[in-house]
Amino acid sequence: MSIYADEMRQTAQAMVAPGKGILAMDESNATCNKRFAKLGIPTTEERRRAYRELILTTPNLSEFISGAILYDETIRQSSQAGVPFTQVMQNAGMIVGIKVDTGAKDLAACPGEKITEGLDGLRERIAEYYQMGARFAKWRAVITIGEPIPSPTCIETNAHALARYAALCQEGGLVPIVEPEVLIDGNHSIERCYEVTDQTLQAVFTQLRLQKVAFDQMILKPSMVISGLECPVQATVDQVAEMTIQVLRNNVPASVPGIAFLSGGQSNQRSTEHLNTMNVKYGALCPWRVTFSYARAIQQPALEYWAGHDANIPAAQQLLYHRAKLNGSASLGKYDPAMEKQTVLV
Ligand code: 5MM
């Protein structure tokens, strides 16, 4: 058992406290720059820093955000006033998280499939991040649906890597967020997504067990069971909620404290509606908390409004706070689409 077990148990519970979710802001420089470039924002370290400061200093964000996942560049940065972001977060009552994978790369001998890298030197990096104040970590595996993929090689290899990562995190005192993402891209049906998600979660929990990961000290960050973006038949919100909860109930041990979904390219409102419906209709059947760990579905309106201009920061922060609030409500099953229109003073 890890010497950090008690602390990690408490951290994991706090990450999924009622009404709260986790903000993903761990975009690598390449992804962040791509999003900046689309909006004409200079792709510099200083603008990335300024944007992350905008997010982390949003007034009262911790009402709905328990913690945020940072990228390696961000965890080493400070506010304009010189306060390290880790300190800014702690002062605001948010737990510091860190993405520790180094990205999804082509999987040898498996065309069109990816394996997430980052295990080499991970023990040492975890120790450094813990010293810096991080208390949880994230690793994302990517599973693509196509014809005839995913291969068993891809599922097993990624499950193995996720479990090795999670075991190392728990040894070093970081609660692992285990993120197997079944991509939304493609023309597959929701039934096919269910099948692939089921196979993936089975493999992931088999490996987590094998590698002695403590389920009560981790968080699962899955994708929802959903129709492919180009599928001509798009599942309803009720279908997504029902099939997502079903696949999770079939695979996720009750001792896992929480499930925090990724948004994966869904629209802002849809990802909130899906989360809300799961909690309204199936909350009573779920042994774990069901909440969010969205990036795009929380950040996008704020990023677009800010567009790199400091004068826009207060209004952009209101937009960020608003989306966090809507998702916090959805995590309690208390969201109503009418809330989308509630006045935000931009
Ligand atoms: C799937 O992406 C994760 C959740 O974000 P969405 O809610 O937007 O789907 C997110 O944490 C993701 O892992 C990072 O943004 C991806 O960063 P890189 O740059 O490593 O792909």
From TrEMBL:
Keyword Lyase: yes
Annotated keywords: Glycolysis, Lyase
Pathway where it operates: Carbohydrate degradation; glycolysis; D-glyceraldehyde 3-phosphate and glycerone phosphate from D-glucose: step 4/4
Catalytic activity: beta-D-fructose 1,6-bisphosphate = D-glyceraldehyde 3-phosphate + dihydroxyacetone phosphate
Primary enzyme class: lyase
InterPro entries found in the cross-reference section: Aldolase_TIM, FBA_I
Pfam families named among the record's database cross-references: Glycolytic
GO molecular function: fructose-bisphosphate aldolase activity
TM helices/strands, residue ranges: none
One BP term from GO: glycolytic process
EC assignment: 4.1.2.13
Keyword Cytoplasm in record: no
Similarity remark: Belongs to the class I fructose-bisphosphate aldolase family.
Descriptive protein name: Probable fructose-bisphosphate aldolase class 1
Highest classification ranks of the organism: Bacteria, Bacillati, Cyanobacteriota, Cyanophyceae, Leptolyngbyales
